[in-house]
Design a protein that fits this description.
Pfam family, one: DUF3817
Membrane topology: Multi-pass membrane protein
Protein name: DUF3817 domain-containing protein
Number of strands: 0
Main location: membrane
Keywords: Cell membrane, Membrane, Transmembrane, Transmembrane helix
Strand content: under 5%
Largest sheet: none
Length: 103
């Protein structure tokens, strides 16, 4: 479960950073009429978000067996700026408690 947690944590940070870059790109696109940044960062974020979904489902559904509600919240976190950073902390604490309880 620890390796699944580490992979999830890396993906949560990567997706969170890419989402912030995409938000900057949206400001540039609509504020300064230049869509180049969104055209480049958008597909990259989309691909990385799919990898994030796989990491979260692997950790939450298969390894840690979270409730569907919590899993959905974690899955949506990659689409709301800063939420992936906040939930990464919550997920890490929750999984580490689970690991400690089973040890």
């Amino acid at each position: 479960m620890e390796s699944a947690l580490n992979f999830y944590r890396v993906m949560a940070y990567v997706v969170g950073v890419m989402l912030l870059v995409l938000c900057v790109g949206m400001v540039v696109k609509y504020g300064f009429d230049n869509g180049t940044m969104v055209a480049v960062v958008g597909p990259i974020h989309g691909f990385l978000y799919m990898v994030y979904l796989v990491a979260a489902i692997n950790l939450g559904l298969i390894k840690a067996r979270w409730s569907i509600g919590y899993l959905l919240l974690v899955l949506v976190a990659g689409t709301i700026p800063f939420l992936s950073f906040v939930l990464e902390r919550s997920v890490t604490e929750r999984v580490r408690r689970t690991i400690a309880a089973t040890s």
